[in-house]
Design a protein that fits this description.
Layout lengths: L27 H4 L6 E6 L7 H11 L2 E6 L3 H10 L8 E6 L3 H6 L3 E2 L23 E13 H6 L20 E4 L5 H14 L4 H10 L3 E3 L2 H8 L4 H5 L6 E5 L2 H7 L10 E18 L5 H12 L1 H6 L1 H4 L2 E2 L8 H6 L11 H19 L2
Helix pairs in contact: 6-7, 7-15
């Protein structure tokens, strides 16, 4: 979910090369062994944490952390499922609510209730009867806008899904392919939640008629097509609306030199869909005790407060504080769209198939 690196690709279904099932390493170096002092975290390639925070965990626990970044979110989940009998590591981080049911239904995780689970905000808890996953962070997928563009053209930025289909916003929005991008899928799910099973397709027909542009990845949409980002400005992007994250504006502030007093981009608060990311102890983990210690750490206050300026996501633990620059420029959506993971599981693939027929025909 880290927007500094994330251009997530979601494989719809499990149609990956079958030989991946034999790729889980059995060596102590790759996955640890029972009694090993190395614990391996498998994640998508957006994992990030402060070196001193990891060092503190290693000193306190006695375990050395090895991180295996395994591609984008969907790819990493699928590969973890295919290698579950001989896993690459001990803990998997990065399965979100759009793919959670797939991981659980395929037996990816074994039960463990992490210390501090009672401190997780109720709305982020999942699988409470079996405790196979631990909530770690949350974030909102939302339309971002280029403030300078709308000021220059005397336009009010859109605030809602309904606004995006109005004539004044024709040819202004770029979004990601829902079949190949995590934010693209999240935006699709947001429209499904907003308009229901009977209405979301009609909405997308109107959005297409209003000139929405679809590209493969978040990286392309945000850093090439969007006129408001630092990367987009360099690439001469001409779309002042983009599907990204509510936490994109603080990135534009934190990484600017010099840092501006205000973010150059804003968020259309009525277009947001909430994602929650989970971690779990992998079935057949070779170092389960190390894995349990690592899960406790991920839910601990130190790590929870380290996440905002590393992965640009919000903590799920009650009482965990976020830096002022993050909360000021990237506040969470007040009323984001959500969907039950079970409904996502039942409809996700068909929604993506229908969306593809509608938008990419």
């Amino acid at each position: 979910m880290s927007i500094t690196k994330k251009a997530s690709v979601l494989a719809v279904g499990l149609g990956m090369v079958g030989t991946l099932a034999a790729c889980g390493s059995s060596s102590d170096d790759a996955a640890g062994s029972r009694g090993s002092k190395t614990v391996t975290l498998v994640s998508h390639d957006s994992w990030a944490a402060s070196k001193d925070v990891i060092a503190a965990f290693e000193k306190q626990s006695g375990y050395k952390v090895k991180v295996l970044e395994d591609g984008d979110a969907g790819q990493a989940v699928n590969k973890a499922i295919l290698t579950k009998d001989n896993p690459q590591g001990d803990v998997f981080f990065g399965v979100d609510n759009t793919l959670l049911s797939r991981a659980l239904d395929n037996g990816l995780f074994q039960p463990y209730e992490a210390k501090g689970s009672d401190q997780v905000r109720p709305e982020y808890r999942a699988d409470q009867d079996k405790h196979r996953v631990t909530p770690v962070d949350s974030g909102d997928i939302c339309v971002n806008y280029d403030k300078a563009y709308f000021t220059k053209h005397g336009l009010t930025p859109p605030k809602s899904f309904d606004d995006l289909i109005k004539p004044e916003y024709k040819d202004l929005l770029v979004t990601e392919n829902a079949g190949s991008s995590s934010p693209g899928l999240g935006f699709l799910l947001g429209t499904a939640a907003q308009y229901g099973d009977e209405g979301w397709e009609g909405y997308w027909k109107k959005l297409e008629a209003n000139g929405v542009k679809v590209v493969d990845s978040w990286e392309q949409a945000y850093n090439e097509e969007f006129s408001g980002s630092a990367g987009g400005k360099k690439a001469k992007g001409d779309r002042p609306l983009v599907v990204s994250y509510a936490s994109s504006p603080p990135v534009e502030v934190v990484y600017a030199d010099p840092q501006p007093d205000t973010a150059p981009t804003g968020v259309a608060d009525g277009t947001c869909f909430r994602q929650v990311e989970y971690a779990g102890l992998l079935s057949n983990a070779k170092n389960p005790e190390g894995g349990k210690a690592l899960l406790d750490f991920l839910l601990g206050k130190t790590f929870q407060e380290d996440m905002p300026l590393n992965m640009f996501v919000y903590p799920v633990r009650e009482g965990a504080q976020v830096p002022e620059v993050f909360s000021k420029f990237g506040p969470q959506a007040k009323d984001p769209q959500t969907l039950d993971p079970a409904k996502i599981a039942d409809h996700r693939d068909q929604w993506v198939k229908s969306w593809t027929s509608l938008v990419l025909k």
